[in-house]
Amino acid sequence: MHENKSPPRVLCAGILSRWLETESFPDRMMPSQHPASALIQEMVYGSIRWFGALKWRILTLVPREPDTASLGFLLTGMYQLFYMDHVPPHAAVHETVEAAKRSLDPARCRFINAVLRNAIRKKDQIEAGLLEAPLSARWSHPAHLIQRWQKNWGKPQTEALCKWNNRRPVVSLRLYPHITGSLPQKIFDLPSHEACPEHFRIVPPGTALEEIPGFHQGAFYLQDPATELAIALLDPQPGMQVLDACAAPGGKAFICADRMHNQGNILALDRHADRLERMTANINRMHTSIIELRQADATRPQQIPQQQFDRVLLDVPCSNTGVLQRRPDARWRITPERMQNLQEIQTRMLDATAPRLADHGVLVYSTCSLEKEENLNCVQSWIQKNPDFQITATRTSFPPESGMDGAFAARIERKT
Known about the structure:
Layout lengths: L7 H15 L14 H13 L1 H9 L8 H16 L5 H12 L5 H16 L1 H8 L4 H4 L4 H11 L1 H11 L6 E4 L1 H4 L19 E3 L17 E3 L4 H8 L6 E4 L6 H9 L5 E6 L2 H14 L4 E5 L13 E7 L20 H18 L3 E11 L8 H10 L3 E9 L1 H4 L4 E8 L2
Parallel strand pairs: 4-5, 4-7, 5-6, 7-8
Antiparallel strand pairs: 1-2, 1-3, 8-10, 9-10
């Protein structure tokens, strides 16, 4: 059956099963156009966000961990039972079991039905037990992350961060007056974002972006106020030559273009062709004329144009621990080995791009990470090996305190 005609719970369970098996990105497995796309996204991302707590609940009801196909349906059903109050429990069980019948054998369908019905009967007992469960289950984060954060910040801040990560994210957009020339008055009817009320508006749940006035004119772009931190330190001016070394999908490049009043040149690099295709579509909608795209790997100096830039933006790949509210799957991919690999990539990018900085230019290193190894420690370690440069300013965002995504940015300049 074509995915856009499949029942939503069949698709949801299938996505969750593939995610469990392959650690693939859930957003890349979503159906492109489905009449119940909102429901599918709610169940998929909700199940992944609460995976630790849901799996703990399941394992209190079964003698051993189910196979991944069955677990996909159990997660789908349990998420409805424990987190979707508007779905009647028996309807959630019936619809999930009927969906399972489309792809599983009768024995596994009976197993899923029994587990879900048992969860209804024992719900109060299960919830009481969860209150005494390990923090990794209660807060639905990997144990090693919780231990790391408690060591760095203490238990209260760690709990506040986990609670923040487990909320549904606010959808916000940035206004682009200097690219568009003018903004539709109706766009100002949207609520302002408390973290940055001048430039950002909050999109009410269920609102289609295409229906917001100014969408096709490039009046706004979907992004969080935390993206402003790095650009504020970069301070691009009209007429400048700017290198955005890891640009796709384009949010920070667009802020640069807006601050530059669409005057000058922004060379935007990314190593992935598919991400550049997405950025091309965004550029066409935003109607900016100063962004030039080029496929290149910012860890390889020979792929970076041999010219000097007034501004260099280095928004490096990172662990994403500052945006786990938006990317709940990322929390389950973080390992010490991955952190080490990322730090090596981040340092190589600094090595490759810093020589392209003009004498009185500014390089801004930025991440959406909260981890000191990827942030200040990384930059300070690089500075020690490159004493001709210095850190002149830093900015950080800790989500429970800032009310926006987590981020770090460091302004680096040549010593005079």
